[in-house]
Structures are given as C-alpha cells and as structure tokens.
Amino acid sequence: MTDNTGLGWPSILTGLRGLLMLLGGGFALFWPGPALATLVWLGGLIVVADGVLGIWALLFGGRRSPRLGVAITRHVLAIVAGILVVAFPFIVGAVGLSALIIIIGIILVVIGVVALYVTIVSRSMLREGTFWPEVLSACAYLLFGVLLLAMPLASALVLVGIVGALMALYGLFQLYIAWRLRGHSAAA
C-alpha cells in the first residue's frame, strides 16, 4: 500500500517558483519603471554587500594582500557606488539601460543599412519575388534602430515590459507543471 500523505514537494516548489515568476512578471509588465528601479536597487545592495564582505575578508579573513591599500580602496569604491545606486535606482537604471539601448539602436541601424545595400547591389542574384521582402526587412531594422535611438528610455521600459510578459508566461507554465506534478503524485 502506498502512502499518499506526503506533501508532494516537487509540485509545491514548482508551484511556488511559478507564482513568484508570475508575480514578478506582472510587476514588470504593468509597472516597468518601478520594476526597473527595484532591480537596480537590488543590484546596488549586492554591490554594497560585496564591498563590505571584501573589506571584512581582507582585514579579518586571514589572507594578506601585497597591495592591501589598493584592495581596500576597491572595496570602499564598491560600497560608495552601491550606496549611490541604492539612493538613486531609477536614475542609474535609466542611464545604464539608455546607454545599452543606444548601442543596440546603433547596431540595428548598421544592420539595416548593410542589409539594404547588399539587397540593392545583389538584386540580380535574388530569386524572383524576394527583393521587396528583403528591402522591407532592412527598412524594419533601420526603423527599429532609429526608434531606439530616438527614445532610449521609453524603449528600455518597453523591453522591461516584454521581459515581464515572458516571465509571467513562464510562471503560468510552471504553475501548470506544478498542477500536473500534483496530479501525478496523487495518482501514485
């Protein structure tokens, strides 16, 4: 006789994971600005903890560095940077993501220009009916790159929303798996 009184830990842990992903994804999807600030804030806390633990390890960890002053300075700077990130998470996140979005926008514009050039130059070698789709694809790269360059912060918030939607979908998938695991463990 099988004992079915167990809690089904795999299904419970999978369900908890799915619920957390769903909540985090919903937060990022519906409130991308605060979600971005929260992620940056958590990153700042991690940098502060790294600096504090680094100084503690240098002073009390039993290891001596030949350049103790340089190592301590590095950890103090990490603490200061982490405190600034924690104090101003939205500004740091906006500047960092804006820079990343600008780089991506430049890359997309270059891809669009190169694709358009290659399509026009090699028009005679393209199969019948593929010229205009290639031109439209290159123009889409150009347009998307220009939009990212024109509105980097808005684009960053849209990307946070997209990631939130993907997290929410993944959370729903995990909840489905937990439900299936629960049904499987109950049948055993």
Overview of the molecule:
- The relative contact order is 0.19.
- Helices cover 85% and strands 0% of the residues.
- With 188 residues, it is mostly helical.
- The chain is extended, with a radius of gyration of 25 Å.
- It is built from six helices and no strands.
Shape: extended
Report the sheet with the most strands, covering strand number, pairing sense and barrel closure: none
Q: Structural class given helices, strands, pairing? A: mainly alpha
Order of helices and strands: HHHHHH
Helical percentage: over 70%
Beta-strand content estimate: under 5%
Short key terms for the protein model shown above:
85% helix; 188 residues
Summarize the topology.
Elements (H helix, E strand, L loop, with lengths): L8 H22 L1 H29 L7 H20 L1 H33 L9 H20 L1 H36 L1
Helix pairs in contact: 1-2, 1-6, 2-3, 2-4, 2-6, 3-4, 4-5, 4-6
In short:
The chain has 188 residues and is mostly helical.
